[in-house]
Amino acid sequence: MAAALRPAILRRIRLSPSPLAAAASAASHPHALARWLSRPMSSHDAHLTRDEVVDRLLEVLKSHPKVDPSKVSPEAHFEKDLGLDSLDTVEVVMAIEEEFKLEIPDQEADKIDSLPLAIEYVANHPMAG
Amino acid sequence: MASRSKLSGIQKQVLSLYRGFLRTARLKSPEERHRIESVVSAEFRENARNVDRKNFVYIEYLLRRGKKQLEQLKDPDITGLSTLEINKCPAGPTVEKSPIAN
């Protein structure tokens, strides 16, 4: 039965133009196919928008006990504008890690001294959630 | 405090140690975490205020002591830090074993 159906099935598949087109497209854009295949399983589907990153970072900063919330803006520098010292800055960066479920290595963390740099770091981090 | 781009090597070590304490505190119960954070923050701030920035020998000593305490704190049997009257306690915070472990 299966043997008898086989030629018919093969003929149908060959005649159908769309799988061929898809295969050709996949061959010329292997990464596009890989992306498409991984899409349903990816946990980064709902990647954070930059606006969301900015809003949540502003909230983290405003909630730090030493920060005057009225001074917090997306351009703020932790030390110059918000009056934070280096220990405060460590606390802020740790709070950012918790907010976005990241672990920021020391080398990177030492560089984050302003909201623009924090926004840049989180927005470009593939694991930020 | 110096601009962030000019953090010295020893400053980076101090900040890294502070970060290590805060990371380790996250692994403890919420109350212990809060207590550890208060004690550690008070200790670092007290030393930042009172220790001469150029007294490298003493800062290096504090770093070594802090690293040892951090290693002890990482032990899951250690529930937290305790200090009794920080100002009168030259040895700084001591680690506290959980009653279960004793």
From TrEMBL, chain A:
Pfam families reported for this sequence: PP-binding
Stored InterPro entries: ACP, ACP-like_sf, PP-bd_ACP, Ppantetheine_attach_site
Organism: Leersia perrieri
Protein role: Carrier of the growing fatty acid chain in fatty acid biosynthesis. May be involved in the synthesis of short and medium chain fatty acids. Accessory and non-catalytic subunit of the mitochondrial membrane respiratory chain NADH dehydrogenase (Complex I), which functions in the transfer of electrons from NADH to the respiratory chain.
Protein name according to UniProt: Acyl carrier protein
Subunit text: Complex I is composed of at least 49 different subunits.
The organism's place on the tree of life at top rank: Eukaryota
One GO CC term, this protein: mitochondrion
Subcellular location: Mitochondrion
Keywords for this protein: Electron transport, Fatty acid biosynthesis, Fatty acid metabolism, Lipid biosynthesis, Lipid metabolism, Mitochondrion, Phosphopantetheine, Phosphoprotein, Transit peptide, Transport
GO molecular function (one): acyl carrier activity
Membrane spanning stretches: none
Record-annotated Carrier domain positions: 51-126
Pathway in which the depicted protein is active: Lipid metabolism; fatty acid biosynthesis
Alphabetized HAMAP family for the sequence: Acyl_carrier (MF_01217)
Membership in a protein family: Belongs to the acyl carrier protein (ACP) family.
TrEMBL record, chain B:
A Pfam match: Complex1_LYR
Keyword annotations: Chaperone, Mitochondrion
GO biological process assignments: mitochondrial respiratory chain complex II assembly
Entry keyword annotation includes Chaperone: yes
Taxonomy, superkingdom: Eukaryota
Cellular component terms (Gene Ontology): mitochondrial matrix
CDD domains assigned: Complex1_LYR_SDHAF1_LYRM8
InterPro entries named in the record: Complex1_LYR_dom, Complex1_LYR_SDHAF1_LYRM8
Subcellular location(s) of the protein: Mitochondrion matrix
Domain Complex 1 LYR protein span(s) in chain numbering: 12-72
Record family assignment: Belongs to the complex I LYR family. SDHAF1 subfamily.
Protein name from the UniProt record: Complex 1 LYR protein domain-containing protein
